[in-house]
Structures are given as C-alpha cells and as structure tokens.
Amino acid sequence: MRIRGFRAGALAALVLVVVLAFAASLALGSRWLGIGAVLHALADPNGSDADVIVRSLRLPRTVVAVLIGACLGVAGALMQGHTRNALAEPGIFGVSAGAALAVVLGLQLGIADSVGSTVWCALIGALVATFGVQRLASRGSGATPVGLALTGAAVAALLGALTTSIVLFDANTLDGYRFWAVGSVAGRGLDVAAQVLPFALIGLLLAAINARDLDLLALGDDVAAGLGLSIRRARLVGLLAIGLLTAAGVAACGPIGFLGLLAGHVARRIFGARNSWLIPAAGLTGAAALILADLVGRLVGGAGEVQAGVVLGLVGAPLFVLVVRRRAVAL
C-alpha cells in the first residue's frame, strides 16, 4: 500500500511537470509573455501579436511535443521491456531508418512535397520496416529479445546505407532530407498531430494491453508460458505498439534520438519494473522531456533556435554513457 501511494504521488507529480512545462512553452521564447497574455490568447483572442504568437506558433508545436514525446517515451519503455536491455531504443528496430528511406524516396520522386505528404511517407516506411523486422526475427525459433535486437540493428544498418547512397548523389533530395532528419517540432502544426493521432492512439492502447504481458515476460519465457501467456502474441502486440508509436513520432518530427532511452530509464528508476505504472510514467516523462528540449532550444538559440533533437542528443548521449558505465544493461 505504501509503495502504491508513492507511485501514485510520483505519477501525479509527473502530470504536474508536464502541465508546467506546457505553460512555460507557451510563455517563453524569443519574446517572453506573461501568464495573463497567454490566458488571454487562449480564452479571448483579439488578433494581437501575443495572440498570434501563442495560438499560431507556440500552441501547435507544444501540442505536437506532448503527443510525440509520449509516443516515443512509451515506445522506449516497451522496447527496454521486450529486449530486457536498459540501453534499448526504438530506433534499434530499424523504424527510424525505414521512415528516413521512405522520406528520401518520396523527396526524390516528388511525392513528399509538403509536411503532410512527408508524414505519410515516413509512416509507411516506418511500418514496413517494423513488420519486416518482425517477420525476419520470427523465422526459426521465433522473435526472441536477442533476435529482435540483432535483426533490427541489421535492418537499420542496411536501410541507413541505402538512404545515404541516395542523398549523396542527389543534392536536391539532400537539401529536403536534412531539414527533416535533424528532429524538431518547429513548423509542425495541429494538422500534423491530427494525421498521426490515430496511429498514436492505437499504439498507446496496445501498449496498455501489453503491460501485464511484459510483467509476465520479465519472469522468463518458460515461466510466462507456464502461466498461460502466449509468448508469440505478447511479442507481436508489443512490436506493433512500438512500431506504431515510433512511426507516429518519426513521421511527425523526424528521428529524435535518445528520447525513448531517457524516458524509459528515468521512469524505471522512479517506478521500478511494474509496467502498469512504468508505461504511463514513461509517456509523461517523454512528453515533458520533448517540451523542455524544444523550449531550451528556443531560449539558447538567440535569433534562431537549436532543434529539439540536438538538445536531446546533448543530454541523452551522456546518459547513455552513464548507464553503460554502471553496467545497467540487463533488466
């Protein structure tokens, strides 16, 4: 009961952190606005400069940051649970690499000529890569944690090589690709959030369904099977959730590295390995992290801004090294 109370309090604190980060994202930037101006823009806009800044620029990107941060945070927690590796990242499944290749092909063919079309190219590529990894890993003894990780790494390397070979020989494609590949919520409006929302909601629902199965899988495949769990079904549901959530995130904002690692690891340190608490905590942590990364990039960038993917890379890389040094690779 005591532990449950602590977890409930910690989860409520994470919700508060997300709310405060959301409010700060609306108020702060190259032009700082008071809380009164923000509330006025949200409740009773009259077309002033402050209203335009809040409603047209800051609110859409903050909403996108909440949605995509939650998706990538949950995907990171699921990935770490299924591979039993605290260093696991959604990109290890080749999802980001699949999305990148699809975007490059779309740019080269003239299909990805808008944000909306780029989103759909990335979604298709990410989902094809996810199912491809699952099919390859399932051959033989089935999609084991090690098999999924190794297959995903191999597919990611192959798709990454194909992407590089295309952009190196096409300057126009490279120009379009490099702006997407850095990972950012800048310029993403509510229309982008609406396009990926169905995939995100399905992925989050599958993650919630998969939480209890993950608790059983943590006991070992033999024990879980003895308790009546279908290992293949549990792996497939988890993989689908990871694929959909990562695809939504990559499609909307480009590949944002280390967010899944950061959110999953922080949530696990606070809430332990109980996935019914860990998964929502990772989602809230991911949402707060992406909002704050975007906000920091706006505050330190001067007249311009540092992309959220760059900020998270600067934070995530040291965390990755720290986890390795502590040998915390096995869950």
From TrEMBL:
Pfam families on file: FecCD
Keyword Magnesium attached: no
Family: Belongs to the binding-protein-dependent transport system permease family. FecCD subfamily.
TM stretches of this protein: 59-79, 91-111, 117-134, 146-169, 240-264, 276-300, 306-324
Topology term for the membrane: Multi-pass membrane protein
Gene Ontology CC annotations of this record: plasma membrane
Keywords (A to Z) from UniProt: Cell membrane, Membrane, Transmembrane, Transmembrane helix, Transport
Species of the source: Kribbella amoyensis
Full protein name: Iron complex transport system permease protein
GO biological process, one term: siderophore-iron import into cell
